[in-house]
């Protein structure tokens, strides 16, 4: 897995599989993102947040493994 972090880039596009492991920190807790095979997850990064003057937020996330 990866430790908690925000992406420094503009966008990160993840092509999902059926395994999962992505978690997002929301309302002071880690929430698992349910995998949807064939779907894409788009993470807003720090650069995009700056370019949008904070309208779109960079999210704290991590990848976990069992």
Please provide a written account of the structure.
Pfam families: 2OG-FeII_Oxy. By secondary structure, the protein is mainly β. The protein has one domain (2-63). It has one helix and six strands. It has one helix at residues 46-51, and strands spanning 2-5, 11-15, 22-26, 29-32, 40-44, 61-63. The strands form two sheets. A four-stranded antiparallel β-sheet has the order 1-6-3-4, with no helix packed on it. A two-stranded antiparallel sheet has the order 2-5. It is globular and about 35 Å long. The model has no long low-confidence stretch (mean pLDDT 94).
Assembly status? single chain
Biggest sheet architecture: 4 strands, antiparallel
* Biggest sheet: strand arrangement: 1-6-3-4
As a percent range, the share of strand residues is 35-45%
Shape: globular
Distance between the termini: 9 Å
Helix-strand category:
mainly beta
Number of helices: 1
Number of domains: 1
Order of secondary-structure elements: EEEEEHE
Protein name: Gibberellin 20 oxidase
Domain Fe2OG dioxygenase: 1-66
Organism: Eustoma russellianum
Pfam family, one: 2OG-FeII_Oxy
Give a quick precis of the structure.
It comes from Eustoma russellianum (Showy prairie gentian). Helix content is 9%, strand content 39%.
List strands and helices in order, with pairings.
Elements: E1 2-5, E2 11-15, E3 22-26, E4 29-32, E5 40-44, H1 46-51, E6 61-63
Antiparallel strand pairs: 1-6, 2-5, 3-4, 3-6
């Amino acid at each position: 897995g990866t430790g908690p972090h925000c992406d420094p880039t503009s966008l990160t596009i993840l092509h999902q599989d059926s395994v999962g492991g992505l978690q997002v920190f929301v309302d002071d807790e880690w929430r698992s993102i349910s995998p949807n095979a064939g779907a894409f997850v788009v993470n807003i990064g720090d650069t995009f947040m700056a370019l949008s003057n904070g309208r779109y937020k960079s999210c704290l996330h991590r990848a976990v493994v069992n």
